[in-house]
Amino acid sequence: MVLNNTCVVSPPRMPVKSRRLQRKLGLAEAVALSLSIVGPTMAMAFNVSLVVRAAGRAAPLAFVIGTVALSIVALSFVSFSKRVAHAGSAYAYIGQTFGWRWGFVAGWTLLLTYLTYTAGVSALIGNFLQAAARNSGIQFKGLWLAFSLAGLLLAGFCAHRDVKLAGRLMLLLEGISVLAILFLSVVVLIRVGVTQGLSAAPFIPAPGFKAWSGIGYAIVFCVLSFAGFEGAATLGEETQNPQRNIPIAILTTCVLAGVFYVSVTYAQVIGFGIEATTGLANSSAPLNELAVRYVSRPFGTAIDLAAASSAFSCALGSLTAAARLLFALGRDGLALQVSETHPVNGTPSAAIILTSLVCLAILLLWAPLVGPADYCSYLVTIGSLAVILVYIGVNAAELTTSFQTRRTAWSMCGLAGTGVLFWPLYTSLYPAPAYPNNRWPYLVAAWVIGGIALPFAFPAMGTAPNRDASK
Q1: What is the pLDDT of residue 417?
Q2: DSSP designation for 18
Q3: Rg (CA), the chain
Q4: How far is Cα 416 from Cα 82, in angstroms, rounded to an integer?
Q5: pLDDT at res. 18
Q6: How high is the pLDDT of residue 465?
Q7: DSSP per-residue string spanning 313-341
């Protein structure tokens, strides 16, 4: 700038702190987030054995019913996301219906889910990579923990750097792992079909497993396999045309995951043998066993690497959702310091750093004491109990809102979704599971009670959301 022939240098502009997220994401990134949190690959690597223990050879039928049930639950999220675009997802949905204090409790509870999923699944990154390394003759004590820490740090970096790039990375990694498992499933079906012929028995209740009663219990694990489908809703303030793309992302996740689950579960039952489901029920790595049996040992290693990539994708997705939810809660009174966005990347950088540090602390303090598999199982159980409560709240909110506005069809969806969810909640609590799993309901209850107390201690948390607290 020149003034009176004197050169005056303007001071450099400092980045302006903002509490607004940048709307630059598309449908692909929204789908990627929900799919990555659901983690279809990991569900097929672990949950199928649990379903088979309950339903026997009829595990694919249980997944068919579970897909329908969870899709009904998802409809309430679809209905709300058509009207509300908010980074807090369930926080805003329940808040608009039952008041913002109860909305805060819902958001606080859902935050527990995303934090436990991030911290828990990060251990599986190292677990799968260590299994792959072992196949190559590489063994070091604590190798899995080093891999897990590196994976969690990398997830935090990707989430902080560029959410659009992170979304595409999640989609790529999950896509690779899904394709690897689909290839294995096709090989199994072809080989069994040629030698023995395929059977429809997996879609008929198994008498030896209490028929429909066994399927009813198995549906609990099927429903939990979909936990996280609503993750795309946390991108409501960053997705273009959110009233269109978020509902599509939620439904797409449920449909794609359901088809994948039914197909791969059928291949696993057929691959182990319809009359030999005991082997599948007791297997700790069914996909690896099938890969070695029907393809080759190196392909078993490839399956381990695919599972590791899926675990990383799930950790990245859960961390991304946790940061958005913490950002929304912080912006509305929890802590304004975590509601600031990066001036260049547009990501909720403070919330990402804090959630990453919390998950790192949990991983370092707990995982080495119990091992990666039990550690992940404990944390995912805690998160699943919490998310069932949130799902019940959202469906109850949809039932109430739809009834008040005389949208009969949607109110029936809310009623059906609420009813569906009480079964997995009940069976998760009674009969009481063995120690230490019988302690997790109390931990979740304590967390929820804390969420109820906070808005009373800090009244600002019970007010309507502030989209930009900097104004």
Answers
A1: 92
A2: B
A3: 23
A4: 20
A5: 57
A6: 60
A7: HHHHHHHHHHHHHHHHHIIIII-GGGGPB
Structure tokens that stand for 389 in this block: 């409560």
pLDDT value of position 16: 45
Asked if the structure places residue 10 within a domain, the reply is: no
Nearest alpha carbon to residue 77 among 294, 213, 229, 204: 229
Q: Which residues contact 247 (CB under 8 A, 6 or more apart)?
A: 78, 81, 82
The span from the CA of 164 to the CA of 161, in Å, is 9
Residue 463 CA to residue 455 CA, distance in Å, equals 9
The pair of structure tokens assigned to 30 is: 């929204």
**Which amino acid is present at 408?**
T
Residues 6+ away with beta carbon under 8 Å from 389: 109, 425, 444, 448
Q: Is residue 270 part of a domain?
A: yes
Q: How many domains does the chain have?
A: 1
Evaluate whether residue 6 is within a structural domain.
Answer: no
Question: Cis ω on the peptide bond leading into residue 436 (within 30° of 0)?
Answer: yes
User: What pLDDT is recorded for position 468?
Assistant: 46
CA distance 370 to 367: 6
Distances (CA, A) of 399 to 102, 191, 236, 250, 396: 16, 48, 22, 19, 5
pTM for this predicted structure: 0.90
Amino acid found at 114: Y
Look at residue 239 and give its three-state secondary structure: strand
For residue 166, what are its two tokens? 């992170």
Our measurement of the distance from residue 134's CA atom to the centroid of its chain's CA atoms, rounded to an integer in Å, reads 28
Helix (H, G, I), strand (E, B) or coil at 162: coil
In a domain, 29, yes or no: yes
Burial class (CB within 10 angstroms; exposed 0-12, middle 13-18, buried 19+) of 18: middle
Q: Range of 246's domain?
A: 25-462
Name the residue among 346, 303, 309 with its Cα closest to residue 324. 346
Enumerate the β-bridge partners of residue 25.
Answer: 239
Tell me how far apart the alpha carbons of residues 315 and 307 are, in angstroms, rounded to a whole number. Answer: 12
Instruction: Measure the CA angle with vertex 445, ends 84 and 435; round to 5°.
Output: 130
pLDDT for 430? 81
CATH number of the CATH domain containing 230: 1.20.1740.10
Q: How far, in Å, CA of 465 to CA of 334, rounded?
A: 11
How high is the pLDDT of residue 140?
79
Q: What is the pLDDT of residue 9?
A: 40
pLDDT-flagged residues of the chain (< 50):
1-16, 468-471
